[in-house]
Design a protein that fits this description.
The complex is a heterodimer of chains A (about 150) and B (about 140).
Chain A lengths: L13 E4 L2 H10 L10 H8 L31 E10 L8 E15 L5 E12 L5 E11 L7
Antiparallel strand pairs in A: 1-3, 2-5, 3-4, 4-5
Chain B lengths: L15 E7 L4 H11 L9 H6 L9 H16 L4 E8 L9 E13 L2 E11 L5 E10 L5
Antiparallel strand pairs in B: 1-3, 2-5, 3-4, 4-5
The chains are: A mainly beta (about 150), B alpha+beta (about 140).
Chain lengths: ~150, ~140
Amino acid sequence: MADKSDIGKVGKPTVMKIEEGKVREFAKAIKDRNPLYSDEAMAKAEIGGIMPPPTFLMTLAHWDDGEGQPHVKLDTRRILHGEQEFEYLKPIYVGDTLAAVTKVANVYEKTGGRGGTMTFVVMDTDFTNQKGEKVAVVRFTVIETGQAVAS
Amino acid sequence: MARAKLYFEDVNEGDELRPFTVENLTRGDFVKYAGASGDFTPLHYDQTFVEAAGIPTVFAMGMLNAGILSRLVADYAGLENLRKYKVRFATRVWPGDSVTCKGKVTKKAIENGEKIIEGEVAVLNQKGEVAVQGSFRAALPSRS
């Protein structure tokens, strides 16, 4: 189980390329057929290039080999994804190369209902582009329940 | 044109975002999202694993639902104008469920010279239960 001593832990820095095919695949998976994700000429004319969908930075999972997130002990049978927050500071385009670093921002406990004591782990990932500009911050909150929560 | 461009002057607090429904999510949709996102948490595709955890069957990744919901926000405010998108997960979405995305503008203001709008959005299942509660913030262009 995670605890306060995990705060400040940093994962392995990861490099992530924003690839056209991956953006297209992701847009299809979230059922968004907006041509701005696939028509390069239209995207260039309207918004300066193909930008990935708002939640695309989740695909960092493909690049970090599971080591991007700081190591925190969690039981995968009892975890819930609590919250996810995306802050967009500068535009991200297909062709960009982003450097991502994730750190544990907070760990705290709450006493819940059915699940018993719940442990909340908050992780912040900073994304910086090839020009050295910070382009996004993604904040992930995972909850470990006291027991498996059957529905 | 993919969409009509939204200008700050066109927005009023209380304006509703045009809702849409995605019918009948399938296990195949969960698997496609797993491949697209790299989220291979077994809760979303491995029946043996979820049964051992006391859960009747696999369920949608929260981020799949949040991704579907992000279209509501991107279509309305414009991908390039989006500054923040936040989601909180409530009820799970199961195979066969249909999800409806809806939302409204809750704030319109000029902050530090930027023309800002904020709104609340949600994913509801076919019973009207909230699966995802979200919010967004965007900086819009002006007609003037």
